[in-house]
Design goal:
CATH superfamily: L-amino peptidase D-ALA esterase/amidase
Largest sheet: 7 strands, mixed
GO molecular function, one term: aminopeptidase activity
Protein name: D-aminopeptidase
Keywords: Aminopeptidase, Hydrolase, Protease
Distance between the termini: 25 Å
Organism: Methylobacterium aquaticum
Shape: globular
Radius of gyration: 19 Å
Number of domains: 1
Number of strands: 17
CATH class: Alpha Beta
Order of helices and strands: EEEHEEHEHEEEEEEHEHEEHEEH
CATH topology: L-amino peptidase D-ALA esterase/amidase
Structural class: alpha+beta
Pfam families: Peptidase_S58
CATH architecture: 4-Layer Sandwich
Length: 354
């Protein structure tokens, strides 16, 4: 299999083909990979400053609510985020949320006293096939390491929160991409990042090609048994376009189009959550600071962004599959890399789906 992943769509990507092509956004990982422990934390920072004081507009769309994330209620009510976005395994959510609160307190000791409380924002997927989640090893130090390592260069595959994740019966994990469009007379960047842990092998489509049946057949030959889908995917979209929370929710919802193109049907046990945020302006925590007067992009100009986020999410999932290596973890469970199972994917006689 070529090391170059298939290209999704016709729109150009940014220089990194990553969420960090949106200026100010950085990503960091902490990876735990030893024996039965195959997990980690990934942190997305919308800007390098204090997010508690300078919050960014955001919105989420819950495509399938089988998940244990934290922070969605206030996000829905206020349309903003005030901590970095953290990704981890299901049982790591409480520890990572506590770490986010402590990190905010360290910079702003008045939080919860003379200042408002802080809303931690943590998303999760179940990596229990490869990782012994019941040992609950993820802690504050791992969040700090991921946060402090945040950079514009984004490692992909079996790293950070993606270390123990599975996708279509093979190794999944972290993937990222970007697309550049023109909307309303301005240049706009859409960056995407996924924590991919979903899908049955038979469902897989790559660039519209139905590779799932062949993948399922080869996995069975490798004695890898497909189980009912109970994984999840977290879909993150960032943009420098000036959008409000209502528009960002519309953008988040279109991430589901990119997910569906890969063959997902948002299975019963899969928690599929999308979040979109804008870096075009910030919203002050201090009530004495005037709210910004921002001219939002007109709704009539949103279609190029919708197309870009669908392409970017599909591309990010492809990147996660292509860049993840084979991992063996709990009880000897193994998830092979897609590149090991379908090295000849481009030559396979699979139909192109409409």
């Amino acid at each position: 299999m070529t090391d170059i992943p298939p290209r999704i769509g016709l729109r150009p990507s940014g220089p990194r083909d990553a969420i960090t092509d949106v200026v100010g956004v950085t990503v960091g990982h902490c990876t735990l990979a030893e024996g039965a422990i195959q997990t980690g934390v990934t942190v997305i920072r919308p800007h390098p400053g204090d997010l508690y004081h300078d919050r960014v507009p955001a919105a989420a769309a819950v495509l399938n609510g089988f998940g244990k994330s934290i922070g969605l209620m206030q996000l829905e009510e206020l349309g903003l985020i005030e901590t970095p976005i953290a990704l981890t395994n299901t049982f790591g959510v409480p520890a990572v949320a506590a770490a986010q609160i402590r990190a905010a307190l360290a910079v702003n000791p008045g939080i919860g006293r003379e200042l408002p409380t802080v809303n931690p924002l943590v998303f999760e997927c179940n990596d229990g096939h490869l990782n012994d989640m019941a040992r609950m090893v993820v802690g504050e130090a791992h969040y700090r390491q991921a946060h402090e390592s945040a950079d514009v260069t984004v490692a992909e595959g079996a790293v950070g929160a993606g270390r123990g994740m599975s996708c279509f019966g093979v190794k999944g994990g972290i993937g990222t991409a970007s697309r550049q469009v023109e909307a309303g007379g301005r240049a706009v960047t859409i960056g995407t990042l996924v924590l991919a842990n979903f899908g049955r092998p038979s469902q897989l489509r790559i660039g519209g090609r139905a590779l799932g049946p062949i993948l399922a057949e080869r996995l069975e030959a490798h004695q890898t048994v497909a189980k009912p889908e109970k994984g999840s995917i977290i879909l993150i979209a960032a943009t420098d376009a000036p959008l409000d929370a209502r528009q960002l929710r519309r953008l988040a919802l279109r991430a589901g189009a990119g997910l569906a193109r890969t063959g997902s049907v948002f299975g019963h046990g899969s928690g599929d959550i999308a979040l979109a945020f804008s870096t075009a302006y910030t919203l002050p925590q201090d009530p004495g600071t005037p709210m910004p007067a921002v001219a939002m992009l007109h709704d009539a100009h949103l279609d190029p962004l919708f197309e870009a986020v669908a392409d970017g999410i599909e591309q990010a999932i492809v990147h996660a599959l292509w860049r993840a290596e084979t991992v063996t973890g709990r009880n000897g469970h193994t998830r092979p890399a897609l590149t090991a199972i379908l090295p000849d994917w481009a030559a396979l006689p699979s139909p192109v789906m409409p």
